[in-house]
Structures are given as structure tokens and as C-alpha cells.
Amino acid sequence: MSLSPAQRHNRRVEMEQQLKRQLSVASADSLHVQVRALNDDVQRVTNQPTMADRITFKRDVLLPRWLPTAEDYLKGGNVHANPILAWCIVWLFDVGEFDQALEWADIAIEQQQPTPEAFRSNFPTFVADTMLDWATGTAEAGESVEPYFSRTFENVASKWRLHEEVTAKWFKFAGLLLLRDDSGRPVAAAVDDVETLQKADALLASAEGFYKKVGVGTVRKTIAARLRALTKE
């Protein structure tokens, strides 16, 4: 039986009070009310004036409000499309909580959860793109990309069905990662280990196999020249 306008209002007020106390609001008969409140919160993000403000809002306001409900859904065992879980995963990535984000993303992918309506990609593509952007910036800064790079690359290489260009970018990054110096620049001519150069070239060759225009021709020539120089020594 559908709720009357007064009942829907009362349910919304009750739910808002629970959210403010960072309590779960999970229940089947109130899912449509939850989604309305969730959509309102998503809109509130766009009202934040700067990117930094949006990150802070997601970390300090939205995740504490909605994580308990998403956690209850995951514990319940009743699998269905859940936009609260989907948005929580997105926000976890946005604020850099990669351990929980990747764990929940694996579950969402297994459950074939859709990404939020505004997204054009599915969850495997979203995670692959998000983590590659992060890994690229992190590596260029000369910082470690582990353990998140290896965990995601394994999924990209052997589990997820992705567009060939997306997969190629990951193999390219993996190859260049082996060539990076302490400052984060990929410099094949500075690598002295033959095995490392061969492994990097194999990864770059795989990238080219997935997508011809991935842009690894020049670096592969540099690797070949470096290998010739080392084997002559």
C-alpha cells in the first residue's frame, strides 16, 4: 500500500533525523524516500564553490551520513540496484579512501551494480580510469603507487572486460613505471638492468597490441637501443 503525502513527509523527517545522527536508514519500504534524500545531497555537492570544498563536503558530511546505510545493505545479502552504495563508492574514491573504495567496488562489480545515472561508464571502467589518473599523478611526483596500482592492474589485465584503449593505457603505464627514475620520469636510457628493460618492452608491446595508437613506438625504440648498448658491453 502506498504512503499518503503526510506519511511520506513523516518518513522523510524521521529519515533525516537518522541521517544527522549517522544512523542507517536502510529499509525496503523507504527506498524511494532514501533516493530522494540522496539526490538532494548529490545536488548539494555541486553547490560547493571549489573542488577542495566539494572533497571536504563529501568526506565530512556525505560519507558519514550514507555509509551506515550502504554498510547495512552489504550485510543484508539482498542484492539489488543500490544508488546509495554506488554514490558512496564514488565518494570514497573522490576523497582518496582507496582501500574501502576498491573493496566495495569489487563487490559492486560482482553484483553488476550500475554507476550513478550521471555517469557514462560502468564500474570497471570508472575504477580503471580513476585509479590510472591517480597513479599517473602519483608516479610523476616520484611517489609509490603501491599497493593500489598492482591490485587494479591485476583486475584490468585478467578480470574486467574493458574497452581496448583503456586496457592499453594501463599496460603502457605499467611499462613506463618500470623505467621511471627517482623524479618520476620514464628514462629508458638510464636503466641498466636488461631484465627490467625487457619486461617494460613486453608490457608496452601488449599495450600496442590492444590499441595501435597508444603511443609507445618511440619509447620502445629507445628501449631497443638501450638493450643493444648493454648487450655489447
Task: Tell me what the structure shows.
It is a single chain. With 233 residues, the chain is mainly alpha-helical. The chain has 2 domains: 119 residues, no CATH class; 111 residues, no CATH class. Helix content is 68%, strand content 0%. The protein contains 10 helices and no strands. The chain is elongated. The mean pLDDT is 90.
Our Rg estimate from Cα atoms comes to: 23 Å
Helix content: 55-70%
Helix and strand element order? HHHHHHHHHH
Main beta sheet = none
Q: How much β-strand is present in the residues?
A: under 5%
Number of domains: 2
Uncertain runs are none
**Count the helices. How many?**
10
What's the overall geometry?
Answer: elongated
Average pLDDT reading: 90
Provide the structure class.
mainly alpha
The end-to-end distance, rounded to whole angstroms, is 83 Å
Number of strands: 0
